[in-house]
Amino acid sequence: MRRFIVAVTIASLAMACSDDATTDPDAAGDSSDAAAPADAYTGDACADCPDTPRFVGSWGGRGTEPGQFIEPSSVEIRSDDIVIVAGHENRVQLFTPDGELFDIFGTAGPGDGQFNHPHGLAVDRDRDDIIYVGDQENHRLQVFDMDGVFIRQWGDAEFQHIHDVGIDRASGDIFVGDYELDQLRKFSATGELLGTFGGTGALPGQFNGIWGVSTDSAGFVYVGDTFNRRVQKLDRDGAFVEEWTSFGGEPFSKPTGVYVDANDIVYVCDSLAEIVALFDTDGTLLTVWNIREIYGERSEPEDIVIDTESGHIYIGEVFGHRVLHLFLDGAP
Question: What CA–CA distance (Å, rounded) separates 268 from 273?
Fold first, then answer.
């Protein structure tokens, strides 16, 4: 794949899924790079910024047994605090906030409710916790109720490599990021195509490897433009607004997951720098969370979801194939 960059892994990592580790954009590279990257963030947080969360625990580990993951690259949360995780095991797993396995839905295959490399989750918490799952190699988006019961799906040859899904909170419209085509496509909640934006390149509004997609309360869309090493902000009609290329003077290395919480704080995972950078919606850096320091081990934070009411934070971490559970002390 033309955009693959080498990440860090352990020497014994052998992909148990059908993807070739040398072409999978989520896959880690060889063990010769096992030291922390040179551009790992080591700066201090700003004064009067959101607190640094503390580490609560983790769950998972590499494997295909219930509760295990192969690169848990997508995390979400339901309104009842159930955590939803998709990795490369052709299923979606649900957990309690403490990491106890709650339910599993999906098996490998092309049928309704089956998967071939699910990647990209979104939960419409304003509309009965409807779950959207990008089904990458089946070239489609699938829709489920909150319990994992299949509702509908749509897809075509224009879906090459879905990487993430965002929801317009006001309208319920869906933004689907395609990593391979460098396109952001907008649909109604029932699958009507409303617009196609982007294309390959480095100009404003173009992309080179769409990874994370999220939206704020005003309908603006934030896109992790991974190999242009930036986050782009678009309006709900796909028009370019601005871009962010750094955090505290440090350029992004590999911006992946993007999440906007209920307070319109934008969280950006940089999996190679091992940080999560927090911005306001105008692009002002609020603080940086050094995940290696918080977790105490090497990590590759690839996706993040925040429960702002409770202060719980969940990160899909693909180096150790785990979900990290953090907590913000002093949250409501």
Answer: 11
Nearest-10 Cα torsion for 156, 122, 143, 71: 70
Which amino acid is residue 326, in one-letter code?
Answer: L
Tell me the per-residue pLDDT of 196-215, one tens digit each, with 9 for 90 and over.
Answer: 999 999 999 999 999 999 99
Q: What is the pLDDT of residues 176-187, one digit of tens each?
A: 999 999 999 999
CB 143 within 8 A of CB 153: yes
Helix, strand, coil fractions of the chain, as percent rounded to 5: 5, 40, 55
User: Which phi-psi region, left, alpha or beta, contains residue 266 (left: φ > 0; alpha: ψ -120 to 50)?
Assistant: beta
Closest CA to 190 of 265, 132, 242, 230: 132
- Domains observed in the chain: 44-327 (2.120.10.30)
Query: What is the end-to-end Cα distance of the chain in Å, rounded?
Result: 45
Question: In this structure, are residues 315 and 74 in contact, taking their beta carbons and an 8 Å threshold?
Answer: no
Enter the pTM of the model. 0.87
Which residue type is seen at 95?
A: F
Copy the structure tokens of residue 51.
């607190």
Q: pLDDT band for 308, please (50, 70, 90 cuts).
A: confident
Tokens of 30: 């060889």
Please calculate the CA angle 165-317-162 and round it to the nearest 5 degrees: 25
Give dist(CA 44, CA 226) in Å, integer: 24
Structural tokens at position 280: 């306001």
Q: Residues 157, 159, 26, 202: is their CA dihedral positive or negative? A: positive
